[in-house]
Amino acid sequence: MTPDTFTRSQWYAIGRLPDFEGAEAKPVRLLSQDLTVSDAAGVLSVNDADGRSLLTQIRYGHLWTTLSDTPRPLYDVPEFDEPDRRLVTAGGVGVRCSGLRCVENFLDMAHFPFVHTDILGVEEHPSVESYDVSMDAEKDEIWATKCKFFQPMASAAASGGQMTEYKYRVPHPYSTILYKTCPIREDVWDLVGLFIQPVEEDECIVHSFILVFDEENTDTGLLHFQQNIFLQDRMILENQVPRKLPLDPRWELPTRADASSIAYRRWLKANELQWGVALFNEAA
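Below the sequence we write its predicted structure tokens.
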């Protein structure tokens, strides 16, 4: 299937800057198209299979490109400009499912006690309290706020269990950002996010990052903490059926805890997104 207008009009992260250092024509796959990235004295360029030069920008520690000549603006994350924050990126990890599935899984707090046991949740505290979900009409993005969950080890900097407050943001069909209680500073949020590179309708590369206030852990320690969590998620994601995301409510029955997922699916439908979506009764 040819990508729909909403999908095609987005900017996509395709790798970190060091991933392309010295590249002459490094192959990259995006939206079922073959691209190449070249590094000419530190200036990165992206071409499609016909040799056409694509638009690019460097933001948030990654190289971004788009298949559109008139793309939607890339969303703003002002926390990347704040001093004292540490950015740690994990590099691309391939996942055999639609990138839309990865976004939805990221929004799901109900799996914490069972998939991330003794890290992000414990089976003795499985309940997801009610939270608020809203649409920012001006920016066309989703926010889930007042999300609270007991976590025995909320981050690499946490010294013990705590009730953690979350805010989830979905500013892009293939990007999502979590704002969570900072364990060492008051009145600020640590950020964890996914920039997803949709390779095929049912295959993607996930570029994850953390942007935190942490003066104790090494980059390696922070990276291992996040990778451990994501690899636990990857096992679940690759066993979901179908591999593409169903938008028809007849396929999967939501619960109260799925309020953010419901809003996400409705948003995708409202924007007429079709690429990476499973049709009702479609073979897995």
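The mean pLDDT is 86.
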